[in-house]
# Entry
Amino acid sequence: MVCNRCVMVVSQELTKLGLHPLKVSLGEVELRESDLTEEQSKSLDTTLVFHGFERIDDRKGRLVETIKNTIIQKIHHSPELDRKFNWSAILSEALHYEYNYLSNLFSSLEGITLEQYIIRQKIERVKELLFYDELNLSQIANRLGYSSVAHLSAQFKKITGLTPSELKKSRQPERIRKALDKI
# Structure
């Protein structure tokens, strides 16, 4: 789950299945029921897949989802990132693991590095901000912790194949925007 609507949908679907969610947050669900029957598990899995989600039971998979949710929360829901934002410290502190372990685990399960994932999330945020046309490129670069507009533009072009200006001129940002959980 990567947004508040995702939390709402999962919460509603759990209730429809007769389950009692105690806590539903980004990437995590706590149920009153301690053990689900095989039938409840199958129904839950079918419902989640129908809505584009999946249940993650293993510890490592849950840890990677927590990493993703932490990154998404910081990039998409923070007013501004500091240029000296230290992802290794933030993730280590939030998850209580050494950064090297988190980085290696993420890479092995996701097939990309944590750094690449962070860059892709930042680029998606840039696309969103360009689409809404409320900030200029300099303000966007500052908000997302880029050292300069040139640095942002270079990363943007490397990921999307277009410069931010080209995307803005095309007036079709939806053509290359991605859902956060597809990054």
